[in-house]
Amino acid sequence: MTRVAVAGGTGEVGARVMARGAARGLDMVNLSRSEGADLMTGVGVAARLAGVDTVIDCVSIETMSGQQAEAFFTATSRHLLEAGEEAGVRHHVTLSIVGVDEVPSGYYRGKVAQERIVTGSDRPWTVLRATQFHEFAAQMVRRTSIGPVAFVPRMLSAPVAADEVADTLLDLALGEPRHEVVEIGGPERLQMVDMVRRLLRTTRRRKLVVPVPMPGAAKQARSGVLCPEAPFRTGVQPYAAWLQEQVSER
Ligand SMILES: NC(=O)c1ccc[n+]([C@@H]2O[C@H](COP(=O)([O-])OP(=O)(O)OC[C@H]3O[C@@H](n4cnc5c(N)ncnc54)[C@H](OP(=O)(O)O)[C@@H]3O)[C@@H](O)[C@H]2O)c1
Question: How many domains does the chain have?
């Protein structure tokens, strides 16, 4: 049975990769601190990689600091690649973000550093860049709210369902290493501010949404650099359908 390790298997997309991989009959291993594997220090990683064929990296850190993001993604990627080589992992798949190299500041600076390490390594790799998930609107509300006000960056996005990103990661992970960066986006272009307002309306929550410039990249984020031009795959679920699911699941 193919054994797949998911770094960040408890996160928004990582948990979906874990569940959807198990549903495909794969032997899924979670690498996250809650399972005793810390990718910042490398502690507990080697033991959990024993017998693993493929690694899918979905770790993340909540920060706007470029320095902190760079330190996090550099350390976690290096530890994962080194431990993967020791364990004989045959494919390393990393999840990144569409347009990061056009906006190399704040959190995205860390993602650029991560891509550089993976694409420059001599390990067998594939990078999937995704656009913002539909679920990102909820992450924005959680992360940018101060009391009854959410400060949401003005950015044009091509949102995609995290489930579709998870399936694409698994498809890539089970294939041969591509040694290339491929992209996935959703079927439409939406403003993040509107996505957040629609989410709040649909889930009947009262909050004032204040649009703010995206730190360090106001113009680029508004002009659509975070949307893919020639995606490897385009997700099919529109945002409205995902919103509807949030109501029926409540
Ligand atoms: N959210 C989006 O819209 C979006 C869009 C495109 C790409 N991405 C990319 O997708 C990836 C996942 O994002 P997400 O939003 O799903 O992340 P998330 O929900 O914040 O989850 C982060 C995961 O990382 C794990 N983690 C954090 N520090 C760790 C450490 N030191 N060692 C091991 N595991 C650690 C966490 O588990 P523990 O706390 O248990 O350790 C958790 O499972 C990121 O690389 C992000 O850049 C996200």
Answer: 1
